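User: Can you help me understand a structure? I only have the sequence.
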Amino acid sequence: MRKFSVPRLIFASSSSVYGNNEKVPFSESDSVDHPISPYAATKKAGELMTHTYHHLYGIKTVCLRFFTVYGPRQRPEMAIHKFTDRISRGEEIEVYAEGRSRRDYTYIDDIIDGVIAARNLNCKYEIVNLGRSDTVTLSDLIAKDRTGVREESEDSNAAASTWRRETDLCRHIQGARTARV
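Assistant: Let's start by predicting it. Here is the structure, written out as tokens:
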């Protein structure tokens, strides 16, 4: 980075670093010293490495903690994709804990806006949450998914792809845009 005079490092971290932190909403100043998965541990390690490079070499750094990113062309094993696909095929959805789990879903366009804004953030080293602190229960997500798929099937353009259904559904779920960065 020093060799090529890179003006700023933007690191994609994750809300997974918060682990079992019960304090909600999460804050960038919360302790993240007890990850509960290898993925969270690698994200925490990445944040530590970027801080070390900032400290040693003065590289301006922004660590963005993404919260459950969704949208077109997301990975097929992610909940919104799986649920939309199964509902559209009339299949059952396997739900754990009666659908009480909660997630802070962040639409991909909001993540992109946050990354672009981070390029111009005036800081030396900063950690920023990219989420809304507004969680949705799994049961509410599924109910809205069923409604979105049902509305689409009544539409004359029923051949729309799964990712389009996901996009429309997720915009319906989210409502407001990410405002943090």
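Now, to help you interpret it: The radius of gyration is 19 Å. The chain is about 40% helix and 15% strand. Let me know which part you'd like to focus on.
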